[in-house]
Amino acid sequence: MSLENAISSLKRGEFVLMHDSTGRENEIDMVVAAEFVTPEHIARMRQHAGGLLCLVINNSLGKKLGLRYMHDILSNSDYFDSNSKEMIMGLAPYGDHPTFSISINHYQTYTGITDRDRALTIREMANLNKADNQRNKFVSSFKTPGHVPVLIASEGLLSNRRGHTEMSVYLTQVAELTPVCAICEMMDSQTYAALSVEKAKKYAKQNAIPFIDGKELLEYAKVY
To answer: Label partner for 36 (CA 20 to 30 A): which of 77, 117, 118, 199?
Structure first.
């Protein structure tokens, strides 16, 4: 039932709260399909979630755009000597490689950080998914470094990695939407830590937002 509610919410351009698992990051992200993102979405994620607001794309789009993971970019950079390369994160404490790539702004933005600017950057990346000559349009329409970090979902999604990046892309695919999302971790200003599942469920109920646990997605995808 929560999966059906989540799909319906995404199709309406509304939020879903997604918990990965207690054995992983154990965090809840606010998720919205990028094709519907407005400045109001960004403001709400900034005010009610407070984590790092990121743009998630599926692996095939990342390849078409020529994007690579940041740890690979830095590992192959001539500007990082062997000592500096020791800084590059391998596996994160929760056991996965991070999915960060570059950070971007759309060329029509000013500073890139305002709610309007970030909404434009995110929405235009969703539009790019359906465009012709995607690589050329990407290079001509976006600038880096910017204020919207891009996360690239793993190839194979949940069969290879079970993070918010893969879960959010998988959920948009199930909803038959463009597999590009905006996500933001929910933080707790009282504990200075990630918002607990209990508090997130309370927020979800008060605001009529579907809450979905990663286990339900894994069961639906038949990934164990």
So the answer is: 199
